Amino acid sequence: xxxxxxxxSRAEASLKKYSNPLNVSVLCDALxxxxxxxxxRLGNIDEFMLSLYAEKYNWDVTFSGKEALKMYKxxxxxxxxxxxxxxxxxxxxxxSTHALIRIYFCWDEYKKKIGR
Length: 116
Description:
Layout (H helix, E strand, L loop, with lengths): L4 E2 L2 H9 L6 H18 L5 H8 L7 E2 L2 H6 L5 E4 L2 E4 L2 E5 L7 E8 L4 E3 L1
């Protein structure tokens, strides 16, 4: 597990229930990218270096959208160690529902880590 990424129990449970074929290589690369994004937020790597981590699968951090967060706040909220986190950002790969990977996350300013 990347050192800068915290996986919520809800994310683990969702992955265990997932029944479609999963490209594990893409999923691992996504976690690798999220760790690099945290390094970028910490000032340890620059934007160019972050773009190198994103290159293979075109990762890009996108905000989840104000309306979606407002209407579906419960769906975008996870709890880690009893503390609520609003998953206000995501990265995605693919467009087909059979091969789509979308990872929602947030930046925890206090822990200086990504919560997922």
